């Protein structure tokens, strides 16, 4: 316990520096990590494929396209989608209008997917993007993953605490009652510690709750693509495999605390924080504090 307190004290002593360095690295987050921005029309002229002759694109569509680009870059995604859709319908022969619509739909879908209540809309919008751009393998793969998650978790039980939304298989009797209480209690205690260390409070001020999903090992492997070596994962949601809760209490506490650090790092420094710092902080806090707490559980 003394070692844990020493390490925590050392972290607190430089906590302001760490938080400052994370914020120093902060930059506007890409709305879609996998998507390369589509080319934008700068002039109202394109070349025909057959004759290689310039063909005038109607000014009204180029103007709408320019306005849609502005909205897209400012984060007004729904209006950007609507304008790009008008451009694509008004001039079906212009491939750039279609590409821009695909980009806007994908960005909107990624934002919607962050919130449980709008996740069905996210899948619908990403489906539209895939239909418009069937050669975009990255979007098709993302859609496959989202649909797989929706299928696996469709019958999951959910419950909430002050900062978390917990989902798990309702057929797992071992997770009912004491098991689920252990998870939420561990998370809320860790949240209070990390909020002080990092100086941020995610899932407050109207922000969505931090999602935590407990999965069977086979489900976890299938959804994350990770092997049996992985104790958990964070991709905007904390995912943890649980095989036998009675035998895994100490491991579960450590993994939950570890993955929650990643949520605080994202809240503090965005998605651009280097991997070694992100993972290093998670391992440090897991070892320094999590071990002592897990040991107290016996």
What does this structure look like?
The protein is of the alpha/beta class and 298 residues long. Helices cover 59% and strands 10% of the residues. It has helices spanning 2-25, 59-74, 77-90, 95-113, 119-132, 137-153, 178-198, 217-224, 249-269, 275-296, and strands spanning 45-47, 54-56, 156-160, 164-169, 210-215, 233-234, 238-241. The longest helix has 24 residues, at 2-25.
**Mean pLDDT across all residues, rounded?**
80
Global structural class: alpha/beta
What are the segments in which pLDDT stays under 50 over at least 5 consecutive residues?
1-21, 23-55
Number of strand segments: 7
The ordered string of helix (H) and strand (E) elements is: HEEHHHHHEEHEHEEHH
Helix content: 55-70%
Question: How would you write the strand order of the largest sheet?
Answer: 3-4-5-7-6
Assign an overall shape: elongated
Largest sheet: 5 strands, mixed
Ends: how far apart? 14 Å
Rg of Cα set: 23 Å
Number of helices: 10
The share of residues in extended strands comes to 5-15%
Structure summarized in a few sentences:
With 298 residues, the protein is of the alpha/beta class. The protein has 10 helices and 7 strands.
Write the layout of secondary structure elements.
Elements: H1 2-25, E1 45-47, E2 54-56, H2 59-74, H3 77-90, H4 95-113, H5 119-132, H6 137-153, E3 156-160, E4 164-169, H7 178-198, E5 210-215, H8 217-224, E6 233-234, E7 238-241, H9 249-269, H10 275-296
Parallel strand pairs: 4-5, 5-7
Antiparallel strand pairs: 1-2, 3-4, 6-7
Helix pairs in contact: 1-10, 2-3, 3-4, 4-5, 5-6, 7-9, 9-10
């Amino acid at each position: 316990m003394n070692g844990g307190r020493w390490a925590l004290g050392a972290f607190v002593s430089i906590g302001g520096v760490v938080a400052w360095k994370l914020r120093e690295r902060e930059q506007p987050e890409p709305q879609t990590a996998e998507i390369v921005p589509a080319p934008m029309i700068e002039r109202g002229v394109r070349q025909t494929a057959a004759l290689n002759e310039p063909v005038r694109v109607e000014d009204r569509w180029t103007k709408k396209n320019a306005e849609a680009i502005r909205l897209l870059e400012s984060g007004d995604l729904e209006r950007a989608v609507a304008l790009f859709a008008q451009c694509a319908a008004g001039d079906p022969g212009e491939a750039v209008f279609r590409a821009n619509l695909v980009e806007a739909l994908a960005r909107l879908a990624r934002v919607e997917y962050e919130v449980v209540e709008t996740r069905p809309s996210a899948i619908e919008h990403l489906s539209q993007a895939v239909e418009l751009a069937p050669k975009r393998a990255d979007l098709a793969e993302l859609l496959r993953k989202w649909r797989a998650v929706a299928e696996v978790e469709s019958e999951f039980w959910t419950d909430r605490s002050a900062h978390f939304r917990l989902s798990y298989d309702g057929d797992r009797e071992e997770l009912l009652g004491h098991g689920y209480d252990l998870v939420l209690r561990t998370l809320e205690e860790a949240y209070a510690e990390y909020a002080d260390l990092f100086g941020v409070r995610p899932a407050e001020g109207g922000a969505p709750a931090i999602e935590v999903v407990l999965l069977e090992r086979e489900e976890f492997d299938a959804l994350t693509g990770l092997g049996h070596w992985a104790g958990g994962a964070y991709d905007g949601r904390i995912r943890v495999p649980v095989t036998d809760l009675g035998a895994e209490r100490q491991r579960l506490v450590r993994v939950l605390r570890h993955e929650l650090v990643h949520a605080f790092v994202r809240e503090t420094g965005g998605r651009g924080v280097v991997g070694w710092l992100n993972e290093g902080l998670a391992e440090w806090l897991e070892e320094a504090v999590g071990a002592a707490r897990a040991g107290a559980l016996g």
